[in-house]
C-alpha cells in the first residue's frame, strides 16, 4: 500500500481531498503548518513549515508519493511568496529526492500563464507568462519539477489548476473550473500512471469554454465528469454583480492581471 503525503492539508483543496482520498489511499499522511480544525482520530497529521528543509525531510520519511498543495495560494508581496512557494517548493523536491520518494504531484496554477489573452488557446508547452509573483512561483515549481525528473528520476506531474470548487463562480471560471472528483482523477494519474516522467496537465473539468488544450491529460486516461456549462446561469448571475475590469476581463489570469497593473493597455483588444 503506497504511503501518500499531502501538504496543505488544512487548506481548501486539502480539506476537500481529505474526504475523497482515503478510500483510494488509506495510508495518507497529512501535513500543514496549521493542524486541521476538524482532524479526526484516525487521520495521521505531521506539522511542518515548508521553508525549513529539515522539517520537510522529516515528513517525507517513508513516503512513496507526495501531493504538494501547501503554499501561499494567492498573489502577495515577494517577501510573502519567497519562503512558502520558492524556498518551500525547492525544499519539497529536494527532500523528496533525499528520502527516495518516487512521485510528486505539484499544485501549479493557471496564474503561471495568466498573461495569455483569453482568445489565445494554449497548450502546456507555451512559455510561462506569469501574472504576478505567485504565478512566478508556480513557473518556478514547474521548472524545479522538470529538473528533478530529468536529473534525478523523480516522476513529476504539475497540475496547472484553474479554479477548484463545487461550481464555477463567475464568467471566467466557466472556462477554468475544476470539480473536486476530477482533481482526484488527476492526482491518481500523477501518483500511479506508468508513463509519467515529467508532465504538465491542466487542472480543469470538461469545460466547453476552456482556453486550454489538455489533450495529454486525456491521453493519460483523464475523463472529467464536471461540466461548467451545467452552472452557466449561476455563474453569469454572479458575474453581473462584478464591475467591468478591462485588464482582468481580457487576460486568462483575470483579477491577478489587473492587480497593480501599469503596463500597456493598448495591447488589449476591445
Ligand atoms: N484553489 C484553487 O482553485 C487553486 C488554483 C490554482 C492553484 N492552486 C494551488 O493549489 C494549492 C492548494 O490551494 P488551496 O486553495 O487549498 O490553498 P489554501 O490557501 O486554502 O491552502 C494552502 C495551505 O498551505 C499551507 N501553507 C502555506 N504556507 C505554508 C508553509 N510555509 N508551510 C506549510 N504549510 C503552508 C496553509 O496553511 C494552507 O492550509 C496551492 O498551492 C495553490 O496555489 C489552487
Total helical elements: 10
Query: Mean pLDDT, rounded to whole units?
Result: 98
Q: What structural class results from the helix and strand content? A: alpha/beta
The sequence of SSEs as H and E is EHEEHEHEHEEHEHEHHHH
Question: What would you note in describing this structure?
Answer:
The structure is a single chain. The chain is an alpha/beta fold and 270 residues long. The protein has one domain: Rossmann fold, CATH 3.40.50.720. It has helices spanning 12-20, 53-60, 78-98, 133-152, 173-176, 180-192, 215-219, 232-239, 246-250, 255-258, and strands at 4-7, 28-32, 44-47, 65-68, 103-109, 155-161, 163-164, 177-178, 198-203. It has a 7-stranded parallel β-sheet, sandwiched between helices. Strand 1, helix 1 (12-20) and strand 2 (28-32) form a beta-alpha-beta unit. Helix 2 packs across helix 3 (78-98) and helix 3 runs parallel beside helix 4 (133-152). The N and C termini lie far apart (54 Å). The mean pLDDT is 98. Bound molecules: nicotinamide-adenine-dinucleotide (NAD). Nicotinamide-adenine-dinucleotide binds at residues 8, 10-14, 32-34, 49-51, 69-73, 83-84, 88, 107, 109, 161, 163-164.
Amino acid at each position: 500500500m503506497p504511503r501518500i503525503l499531502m501538504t496543505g492539508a488544512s487548506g481548501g483543496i486539502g480539506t476537500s481531498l481529505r474526504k475523497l482520498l482515503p478510500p483510494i489511499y488509506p495510508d495518507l499522511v497529512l501535513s500543514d503548518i496549521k493542524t486541521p480544525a476538524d482532524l479526526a482520530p484516525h487521520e495521521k497529521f505531521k506539522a511542518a513549515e515548508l521553508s525549513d528543509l529539515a522539517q520537510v525531510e522529516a515528513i517525507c520519511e517513508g513516503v512513496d508519493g507526495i501531493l504538494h498543495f501547501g503554499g501561499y495560494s494567492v498573489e502577495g508581496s515577494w517577501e510573502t511568496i519567497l519562503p512558502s512557494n520558492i524556498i518551500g517548493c525547492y525544499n519539497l523536491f529536494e527532500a523528496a529526492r533525499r528520502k527516495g520518494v518516487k512521485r510528486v504531484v505539484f499544485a501549479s496554477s493557471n496564474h503561471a500563464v495568466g498573461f495569455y489573452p483569453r482568445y489565445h488557446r494554449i497548450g502546456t508547452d507555451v512559455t510561462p507568462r506569469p501574472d504576478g509573483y505567485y504565478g512566478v512561483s508556480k513557473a518556478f515549481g514547474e521548472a524545479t519539477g522538470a529538473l528533478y525528473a530529468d536529473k534525478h528520476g523523480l516522476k513529476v506531474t504539475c497540475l496547472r489548476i484553474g479554479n477548484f470548487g463545487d461550481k464555477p463562480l463567475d464568467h471566467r471560471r466557466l472556462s477554468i473550473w475544476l470539480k473536486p472528483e476530477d482533481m482526484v482523477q488527476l492526482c491518481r494519474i500523477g501518483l500511479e500512471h506508468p508513463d509519467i516522467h515529467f508532465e504538465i496537465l491542466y487542472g480543469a473539468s470538461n469545460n466547453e469554454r476552456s482556453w486550454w488544450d489538455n489533450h495529454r491529460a486525456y491521453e493519460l486516461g483523464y475523463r472529467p465528469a464536471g461540466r461548467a456549462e451545467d452552472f452557466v446561469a449561476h455563474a453569469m448571475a454572479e458575474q453581473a454583480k462584478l464591475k467591468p475590469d478591462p485588464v482582468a476581463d481580457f487576460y486568462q489570469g483575470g483579477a491577478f492581471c489587473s492587480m497593480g497593473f501599469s503596463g500597456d493597455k493598448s495591447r488589449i483588444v476591445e
